[in-house]
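Q: Give me the 3D complex with acetoacetyl-coenzyme A.
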Amino acid sequence: MNFEYTEEQLAVRDAAREFTQTELLPGVIERDTEARFPHEQIKKMGELGFMGMMVDPKYNGGGMDSVSYVLAMEEISKVDASASVCMSVNNSLVCWGLEKFGTEAQKEKYLTKLATGEWIGAFCLSEPEAGSDATSQRTSAELNGDHYVLNGTKNWITNGSTAQVYLVIAQTDLSKGYKGISAFIVEKGQEGFVIGKKEDKLGIRGSDTHSLMFTDVKVPVENRIGEEGFGFNFAMATLNGGRIGIAAQALGIASGAYELALAYSKERKAFGKTISKHQAIQFKLADMATEIEAARNLVLKAAWLKDQGKDYAYASAMAKLYASEVAMKVTVEAIQVHGGYGYVKEYHVERLMRDAKITQIYEGTSEIQKIVISRALIG
Ligand code: CAA
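A: Here is the predicted complex, encoded as structure tokens.
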């Protein structure tokens, strides 16, 4: 048993930490207020290797392990969860999905650009009537010679307008249920592909979340990922890793709020002493630190299992469930420690609380994580 990080993992964490202070912190409040996507920052994240961290270097990736990835995710999420969700979707859903299940030609054409951040990817599973119940896909893909004809609507798509590459899940044979679902690569700008309305959200307001409409979009057969009927398993396998990324995001939001609360408690005076000397605040900080550490251990365990090539579906569901609940709880407490200052934008913690909420919803709600966990327990 070894709880030490390697030198390489620490170097990645420190590089991410430095980047957040110099590039992400300035302007983060304004980007949130104006719901503005961090284009320049994401470009720099690509240049620094944060957009394809685990991809094999032969496809222009960083060749790093999942532990390094979650350390970077935690740091970036402490400051800007809008940037980190873009990073998480690109790394763990799009790049991983293509590297694991794509053909050599798909990897050459798409992964090599996605891994550097030159292109951004989106993962399109959710629909107006298929959120948690993801097998109820209505989007259809009908084979017609050398291409499929794609029709339907996708909802709440992260990187909806910034992406160049969209991994789209669709029904190829309704009669087969989830065994009739397939996955496709769709490029921006294809005829009949319309980027719909941008969502006006509670949190992660800098992230561009859109609906997408497909009307008779021609998708070449060579853009199908895996065999026909593999799409649902593709989505589930990919989400297992995605949930580690979102768990790390939740952990980062929690630890960012905790660090702000700790620093503030050592400055703010009340009743003749800093509030950190009051037991009411000390106990809050102790609870926050303990729960964050427990969440961190779950997240790292899931990442470690993935790195070891062991099954991590159960561990990633647990990590996401727990870390997202901790993120919500800790950010609320961080506001309480700040008192009235916590309720205004300048102090960051109110944004972190708004950002925390989505971690209990996307890539599988807390209730879905409990389904995954209990099915693994009970069989
Ligand atoms: N890992 C691997 N395979 C899984 C799996 C998992 N975690 N969960 C289900 N499967 C497989 C099953 O093994 C089965 O396949 P086989 O028959 O080949 O063995 C198949 O999927 C169907 O499984 P179920 O019968 O269990 O299906 P279900 O309908 O009862 O439940 C579910 C499945 C777990 C509830 C699933 O629908 C689910 O995970 N829903 C949540 C969807 C979700 O996470 N959406 C997130 C959207 S993406 C997003 O948010 C990205 C973003 O932008 C940030």
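A quick observation: The longest helix spans residues 231-267.
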